[in-house]
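Worked example 3 (structure in, sequence out).
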């Protein structure tokens, strides 16, 4: 990743506007790399524009998500570290709710470990000991990812500018302290209508989901949006993402963390 952004502000503004309009209209747009090239810093600038727009409109920031935690995906996209996006309160879905398919464009789901922050993490030189002391508990989580870019035709700058392709998330209700389960060795199975469709383990996420949290905590402190007490951290996928169809019901099982369900409402005939 480059250390400096060379894309003019007017182009970054155009990227942010293109993605914002696609989200508002629920109409996918063309990739934004035509304006950004390979400038990762410019992509984060575009993401920040839409983050500020969301906050100014009254949306509440409640956490962050980490993406690109699989080394194979990083190699595919030609990057050497994960990426991040913002989580807002209106992205949280309870297990009792059905997610309307009409509110999404081309959703997919991933099984993850989510962490809840218990103490502010303000220092960009945090250690793993700081992270272990600062996290309150963990739960199983289903992240619903989506792309405002048509056909998921994305490279690294497209997904970063698009808030790391985030959409919704469902948190489990069986909180566990960090010493109560093994984040590296925990197994994951994601079922659709009772059939296993995605399998993985904690080690698939940068070797351990806690490694991803440490990376994020440092990065957030560096960019001026540090993780604060109460924040949710989606630490990254433990296995392959799965495309969602109307009426799908997914059950995620993570060893040591219990289960969580995400259901999608049947589309109404037009």
């Amino acid at each position: 990743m480059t250390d400096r952004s060379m894309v003019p502000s007017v182009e970054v503004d155009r990227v942010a506007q293109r993605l914002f309009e696609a989200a508002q209209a629920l109409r996918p747009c063309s990739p934004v790399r035509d304006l950004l090239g390979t400038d990762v810093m410019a992509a984060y600038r575009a993401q920040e524009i839409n983050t500020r727009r969301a906050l100014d409109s009254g949306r509440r920031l409640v956490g962050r998500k980490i993406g690109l935690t699989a080394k194979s995906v990083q190699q595919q996209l030609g990057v050497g570290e994960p990426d991040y996006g913002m989580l807002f309160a209106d992205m949280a879905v309870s297990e009792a709710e059905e997610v309307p398919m009409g509110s999404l464009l081309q959703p997919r789901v991933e099984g993850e470990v989510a962490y809840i922050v218990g103490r502010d993490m303000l220092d960009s030189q945090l250690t793993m000991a700081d992270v272990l002391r600062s996290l309150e508990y963990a739960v199983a989580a289903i992240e619903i990812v989506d792309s405002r870019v048509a056909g998921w035709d994305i490279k690294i700058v497209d997904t970063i500018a698009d808030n790391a392709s985030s959409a919704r998330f469902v948190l489990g209700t069986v909180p566990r302290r960090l010493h109560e389960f093994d984040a590296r060795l925990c197994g994951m199975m994601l079922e659709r209508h009772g059939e296993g469709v995605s399998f993985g383990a904690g080690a698939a996420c940068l070797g351990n989901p806690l490694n991803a949290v440490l990376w994020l905590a440092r990065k957030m402190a560096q960019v001026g949006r540090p993780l604060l007490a109460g924040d949710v951290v989606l630490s990254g996928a433990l296995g392959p993402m799965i495309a969602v169809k109307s009426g799908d019901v997914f059950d995620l099982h993570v060893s040591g963390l219990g289960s969580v369900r995400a259901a999608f409402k049947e589309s109404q005939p037009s």
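Notes: The chain has one domain: 60-265. DSSP finds seven helices and 13 strands in the chain.
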